[in-house]
Amino acid sequence: ASTLGASAAEHGRYFGTAVGANKLGDGTYVGILNREFNSVTAENEMKWDATEPSQGRFTYTNADRIVNHARANGMNVRGHTLLWHSQQPGWAQSMSGSALRSAAMNHVTQVASYYRGRIHSWDVVNEAFADDGRGSRRDSSLQRTGNDWIEAAFRAARAADPGARLCYNDYNTDGINAKSTGIYNMVVDFKARGVPIDCVGFQSHLTNSVPGDYQANLQRFASLGVDVQITELDIAGANQAAVYSTVVRACLAVARCTGITVWGIRDTDSWRTGQNPLLFDGNGNKKPAYTAALEAL
Ligand code: XIL
């Protein structure tokens, strides 16, 4: 097929992008979005600070713009993210202990319930592991509410939206390393104890290269009985096109790698300012990286 989404669909996968609600009036942007992609992730609009700016007052206007656009155009929606140590509203940042735990679980329940039936996969918890070389949990106010906060969030999300696939999502987990192994061990434990988890997201914010054991790492998670998804792909630096190709091929080689999401459309849309890590240039033209990704599909 001649587009990323249609080519991925021929392999039973989706090809998605992060979207900003404030760009849905940009004709070039929307033209590429609707032509190339069949899945979207809200780049910021479903985060805690956006959806619950004051405690118990939920605002979905911007997230709904993205969800409605996706549904009107036959695209999946990845929900991102219910709980994360970053981009929390100020009121939550000043909470701790049992008050924070119950506010967090209420947040999960409310947001997942509001979108029940409309989300393909939820990043229930984002970036909860540390980069300490030991595979430990990241120290955060949520972690200090008790090590069971992650499983409590997954159980609350399942109860609120039984049809959504529930994912754990993180970065620097692309190869087999201490951090990815810490997450792997959590999935083993969750599966053994019946904690509901359906997928693991690999953000894959890459520079210059991808670890040689990328595919093997995806496969070891898939072999536990969860789907794997590449959730925030962007690739800076030399060899960009070749690395895109390698990542796409790795996903296709893993039966349970169900989709790939790039973290923006044009280089000028990227959060990695000046690094030009995406598939389209600032004018919306296809880059060599686009051609490499399409040819790998
Ligand atoms: C980024 C957005 O792209 C930026 O617009 C925002 O200022 C900060 O967050 N990991 C994640 C994403 O899970 O939510 C982050 O998105 C990028 C890193």
Automatic annotation (TrEMBL):
Keyword annotations: Carbohydrate metabolism, Glycosidase, Hydrolase, Polysaccharide degradation, Signal, Xylan degradation
Catalytic activity: Endohydrolysis of (1->4)-beta-D-xylosidic linkages in xylans
Active site: 232
Signal recorded as keyword: yes
The family this protein is said to belong to: Belongs to the glycosyl hydrolase 10 (cellulase F) family.
Enzyme Commission code: 3.2.1.8
The protein's name in its UniProt record: Beta-xylanase
Organism name: Asanoa siamensis
Stretches assigned to the GH10 domain: 1-296
